[in-house]
What we know:
- By secondary structure, this protein is an alpha/beta fold.
- 43% of the residues lie in helices and 18% in strands.
- Helix 5 crosses helix 7 (124-143) and helix 9 (192-199) packs parallel to helix 10 (246-255).
Amino acid sequence: xxxxxxxxxxxxxxxxxxxxxxxxxxxxxxxxxxxxxxxxxxxxxxxxxxxxxxxxxxxxxxxxxxxxxxxxxxxxxxxxxxxxxxxxxxxxxxxxxxxxxxxxxxxxxxxxxxxxxxxxxxxxxxxxxxxxxxxxxxxxxxxxxxxxxxxxxxxxxxxxxxxxxxxxxxxxxxxxxxxxxxxxxxxxxxxxxxxxxxxxxxxxxxxxxxxxxxxxxxxxxxxxxxxxxxxxxxxxxxxxxxxxxxxxxxxxxxxxxxxxxxxxxxxxxxxxxxxxxxxxxxxxxxxxxx
Length: 290
């Protein structure tokens, strides 16, 4: 397994302007990563998305840093005003961006779920045909560009391992799989060991993520924590400092035959350079022990 880092991990520096997305590439190289994952396109210089994607690719080639994945948002239920055709076309345009980047895989979201006013009357199985149709058409287009597509266990509604497994099986296309985020299952109050065991055979890409977890039975721990779907308290952690069984999840993935990139997605309160650096050292150690 090789280790990548998501540009999203540098969010605190990107928000203040202390670092640009272009600068993330040399920073990741300097820190010792094998590759970088690009999260959306965030031009800092007035460039178009297409122009900036070309600049990102050129910078990666200059410093010798592969782009391991391109990640962006989508919502096949609510996106583009609820117009599935329009949202599929929008996502296809992002596939074109991935081609400019030189990425051979992308992660797009599935959906955040039904609007609140009808959420209590409609479930995941109701929307599964629509999601699978959208994902299938997107991946068929991406395949013509030499790009594999995937969704992530992400966004509460499409987060459980059973749900994302259903989606992959419904799409039933070899070009479509999962981005397995070992930490995100906790957002749906799911045991990461059981969840990763279920979806490991479908993994095209992996996010290494850690969380501090506190029971919803206790008091709100305060700033930095947020609630899972079931009301437990979560806070982003440095890999190895939290409650996600990272080593065991990696072992499960390896036993399932996964040998691709493991990308750090840091969401902690700590200084991001420090958090990413410590997480990288820990992750290297865990992988070496497998």
